[in-house]
Design a protein that fits this description.
Alpha-D-Glucose-1,6-Bisphosphate, Chain A, domain 4, alpha+beta, two-stranded antiparallel sheet, five-stranded antiparallel beta sheet, 5 helices
Length: 213
């Protein structure tokens, strides 16, 4: 009775399955749209650049990856990093984004400001990942690294509003100092700049010899 030898195809298939995607063949794992079976199931995403993230998915976002990135970047610069904004002094905004023709995958990173270094971008404090899932849809994830819980919560609330199409800064907030101060208030502590005519008058007064009694 002939003895059947074990097939060599099974180990070969296992080896191929264990290899990372080669030359773009086959779907990448992070592109699979898996729905968690329970409400408390953790959400894990991959940020642009291949950096693993244990961040949470922001639900209800609308638009393409490029559109969402544009709204978030505009909101962050208009509110968080505006004059008198809550992050203006101690943090730095940095972002990278693919062209729309390449899907528009984007990453926004809020760095701690490190004035002791030539490049003041310090440790990453808050991360935002935008992963396209179609021509007009994307997955949005956020991850808090070093922000206080209060600031991280306020940032996530802003991001959720902007990603759903609502512009503008938060009208109210329970976080002290989160609402950007009006420009006139933010500049109140700075000495007013003298105009050219005022400077000329000061120079003339200083150059004029004092009259003898």
């Amino acid at each position: 009775m002939p003895v059947r030898r074990p097939s060599m195809w099974v180990p070969a298939l296992l080896i191929v399955a264990a290899l990372p995607g080669c030359a773009g063949n086959g779907p990448e794992l992070q592109s699979l749209n898996l729905q968690p079976s329970g409400q408390n199931a953790p959400t894990v995403a991959a940020l642009p650049g291949g950096e693993a993230s244990a961040g949470k998915v922001v639900p209800g976002v609308t638009g393409s990856a490029t559109e969402i990135y544009s709204r978030l970047a505009r909101g962050a610069m208009s509110c968080w990093f505006a004059t008198g904004g809550p992050l203006k002094k101690d943090y730095i905004f940095h972002a990278t984004a693919d062209a729309p023709s390449r899907g528009g995958k984007a990453e926004i990173v809020i760095h701690e400001r490190d004035p002791t270094q030539p490049n003041p971008r310090g440790p990453k404090a808050y991360l935002v990942g935008i992963e396209p899932t179609g021509e007009a849809s994307a997955t949005l994830t956020v991850e808090n690294r070093k922000m206080t819980d209060a600031y991280a919560s306020a940032m996530t609330n802003d991001i959720s509003r902007w990603a759903k199409g609502t512009d503008g800064c938060a009208a109210t907030s329970s976080v002290p100092g989160w609402i950007p101060a009006p420009p006139e208030t933010a500049n109140a502590d700075q000495p007013a700049k003298k105009t050219k005519s005022q400077k000329a008058k000061v120079k003339a007064a200083q150059a004029k010899p004092a009259q003898q009694p």
